[in-house]
Amino acid sequence: MIRGLRGATTVTKNEEKEIHTNTRLLVEEMVRKNNVEVESISHVFISVTKDLNAGFPAKSLRQIDGWTYVPVMCMTEIDVPNSLAMCIRVMMIVNTEIEQQEIKHVFQNGAVSLRPDLVK
């Protein structure tokens, strides 16, 4: 079965190092909590709010062992008034036997406010 794993985090500054660090921490937790093997990852979409442009968050994933060939794409999140600022969102598409309701979505830092119903 193909499933989507959702994750989001925030940063405090529009700085490349912080964007990379927080993105990597988020993705590593998503993988760990859902027992994802790199070979089972189909692709990953990463969106950022318009206030984050100091670096490509996908670049940080290239530093993770085994991720060289995982297709990753960055894009800008739609600019909805009063939405959460300085936010990085991840949608990871994986092959898994985990049931939909058993997926553990990950929200870190200020992004916990996006889906408190999914925070476990």
Automatic annotation (TrEMBL):
UniProt KW Cell inner membrane keyword: no
Keywords noted in UniProt: Amino-acid biosynthesis, Aromatic amino acid biosynthesis, Isomerase
Name this protein carries in UniProt: chorismate mutase
Catalytic activity: chorismate = prephenate
Residues annotated as signal peptide: none
Residues annotated as binding prephenate: R6, R89
GO molecular function, one term: chorismate mutase activity
A Pfam family it matches: CM_1
UniProt EC number: 5.4.99.5
A GO BP entry: aromatic amino acid family biosynthetic process
UniProt gene name: aroH
Protein species of origin: Virgibacillus oceani
Domain of life of the native organism: Bacteria
Keyword match Isomerase: yes
Matching InterPro entries: Chorismate_mutase_AroH, RutC-like_sf
Record-linked PROSITE patterns: CHORISMATE_MUT_1 (PS51167)
PANTHER family: CHORISMATE MUTASE (PTHR21164), CHORISMATE MUTASE AROH (PTHR21164:SF0)
